[in-house]
Amino acid sequence: KTARELAESATSNVPDEQILFGDLHVHTTFSADAFMMGMPILQGEGAHPIADACDYARYCSGLDFWSINDHAESITPARWQETQDAIRQCNAIAGDPQNPDMVSFLGWEWTQIGDTPENHYGHKNVVLRDTEADKVPRRPVHSGSFASQAMRQNINLSQRVLLPLADFPNRQYYLNMMKFLSELRETPLCEEGVDSRKLPDSCSEGADTPEKLFAKLDQWGYPALVIPHGTTWGIYTPPGSAWDKQLNARQHDPERQRLIEVFSGHGNSEEYRDFREVTFDAAGGAVCPEPQGAYVPCCWQAGEIIRDRCEDASSAVCEQRVESARANFVAAGVRGRLTVPGSTIEDWASCGSCPDCFLPAFNYRPKSSVQYIMALSNADQTSSDPMRFHFGFIASSDNHSARPGTGYKEYDRIPNTEARGPRDATWYDRVNEGIPREQTPESAPFDFAGTKLQNFQVLDFERQASFFLTGGLVAVHAEGRSRDAIWNSLQRREVYGTSGDRILLWFDLLNAPQGTVSMGNRTQLAEAPRFRVRAAGALKQAEGCSDATREGLSADRLERLCRGECYNPTDERRRITRVEVVRIRPRVNPDEPVGSLIQDPWRTIPCSGDPAGCSVEFEDPEFPGERREVLY
Question: What is 34-58 written as a DSSP string?
Fold first, then answer.
C-alpha cells in the first residue's frame, strides 16, 4: 500500500473522519537566514526553492498538507508573487481538489524580536486559507524589529570580495546572495498608519506588535490563522520574557490565534518549570539567581568560569570578579557569552537548559512555555469571565532547507535539521573574527554602541546547534482531504502535535451535555468529566523509498532532496506503553503560583502494549468541587 492508503485504512474506524499529518512551518531560500545557511562554507547545499519543498512533502515525507512560511522580513514584492505562483503550481498537480494527494497552504512568518522582555513578542506564522490572487494580501507583513533591520544592513566591500574569492568554485552562490540582499535593501518601506489596501504593491510593510499585525489582517479581511511558535527559545528571546503581556484584547486575537506550536526542530516549548534564568529586584533591575536544583542559569555559570580563572578562588578579589561577571552577563541579555572572553562551549556546560524536559529548546524561557501560557488569566477582566488563551496544540518542523516533515526518520543531521557551522577550521576562524579568543581573568561588559560584530556572531549559534532536531508534525481530525476539510479542523482546534512519529490519537469527553465532544472543544459540566483516550503507535519504517516515490522523482532529484530515505511505512506499529494526562487549572487570581496549577503528569495510565493500540478511560472526581475551569 502507499503511505496514503495505509493512513486511510488506519483511521477507517472513525466514521467520516480521518487523521491527516502536515507541517505548518517551512522555510526555503526565500528566507534570508535559510539563504545564508545554504552557503557551502556553512556545510549548506545551496539554494532550495519552493518547488523543492513541494516535492519533498509529496515524495520524501509523504505529507497530507503543508504551508510555506518564509520570513516576511526578507520577502520582496517579486518574491511574494513567486511564492504564490509556486504554491498554486504545487496544488495544481495534486489531483481532484476534493480528494487531493496533498494540500499546500500559503503563508509567511512574522519574526518579531525585542531587546527587552517588555517589547519582545516572539515569532508567529501566518497561514492563509486561500491561494487565489484576489483572496490573499498583496504583500506579507513583517515585524519591523531588528530581525528585518539586520537584513537591510549594507554588506561591506571585504565581504563582497572575500566570500566569492575564498570559495571560488561556489562563487555564484555568494554572488546570488549579494543580489538577494541588495534587492531587499532596495525595496522601500511602506508608509506607516495607512490602510494596507491603499498601499502600493512595491513596498515592504511592517507591524512591530501583534496588535498592529492583527489590524492589518483585519484590513485585508481574508481568512488567516496566526500561530505563535518557539516561545521558549532563548537564542534571541530576552531573559525574563513572559507571555503575560500578550493576554489582552489588543495583543491577542482569539479568532486568529487558535493554535500554538509546542514542538519543532528547535525542540520542545511545552513544559513549564519553576526555575528562573533571571530575576528582578524591587526597582525592576535584572539580577542573576542562584542555581535551582539541577538548573544552572547561564549568568551564574559565567561567574563560575571566571572563578576557575582565579589564582585564589577563595579570595575577596576573586569573589568580586565572579559577581561582576554575573552582572555583566545579565546586562548583556542574549549576548551574555561575549562578556566572558575566551570561553568555549565546554565552559558553559548545560547552563540555561531545562534538565528534565523532553527534548528542550535551547536556553529555556519557562514563563513563555505553553503550559505557563495556558495557566494565565487576565486580571483586568471580571473574575466570573476572565480572558484566557484557548489554544489547540500543534507541532511542525521550522525546517530551513525546504524539507517539510523531516521527522519521519532520524538520518543525515545537517540537511534535516538546522545544525550548521563552518565547514573547516579556516572558516571557523573567519566566522568568529572579532570575537575575543584570549582568556582574561575578568569579564568585560558588552559594548552595545561600539561593537562591530555581525548579528550572527553575537548570538550563540554554536551551542544552539547541539539542540537541533528533526521536526514535528501537526495532526488533524478531518472529514476529508480537501483544503476546506483541513482548514475547518484547524479552526475547531481538533488537532494534536507529535515530535515526528505519526501516532494516532483520539481524546474525547464522553459525558458532556451535548454528548461526546472531541479534542479542542470547550464545554460546561456540573459533574465529574469522563474521558476516553485511544492511541495507536506510528508505523515502523522500512529502509529506502517506496516504488511510488521512485516513480515520482528522477533518481538525481530523489537523491538531492530525500537523500535516499523516504517515509516508507511497514504494516507493523510501535507500541503505546502508557497514557500521561496533563491537567492545568488556569489562574483564578493573579497571586496564584503558576507551578501549583500545572500538574504534569496528573494521571499516568499504563497500556498493555497491544500492537493494535491502547484505549483507556478515566474521570476527574475533584472537578465538581473545585468549581473552576480545567484544561486536560
Answer: HHHHT-GGGT------HHHHHHIII
Q: What are phi and psi of 279, to 5 degrees?
A: -125, 175
> Packing angle between helix 298-308 and helix 316-332, nearest 10 degrees?
140
Q: What is the distance between the terminal CA atoms of the chain, rounded to a whole angstrom?
A: 36
Residues 312-346 have pLDDT tens digits of 999 999 999 999 999 999 999 999 999 999 999 99
d(CA 281, CA 604): 39
489 strand-pairing partners? none
Flag whether the pTM goes above 0.90. Answer: yes
Which secondary-structure segment (H or E) carries 317? helix 316-332
Q: What is the pLDDT of residues 395-414, one digit of tens each?
A: 999 999 999 999 999 999 98
Return the sign of the alpha-carbon dihedral for residues 546, 550, 552, 557: positive
Q: What are the grid coordinates assigned to 480, written together? A: 476529508
- CA–CA dist 461, 365 (Å, integer): 17
Closest CA to 173 of 26, 34, 27, 77: 34
Enumerate residues 6+ apart whose C-beta is below 8 A from 137: 128, 196, 216, 217, 220, 222
| C-alpha closest to that of 34 among 422, 415, 429, 560 | 415
**What is the grid cell recorded at 341?**
572572553
User: Peptide bond before 254: cis, by omega within 30 degrees of 0?
Assistant: no
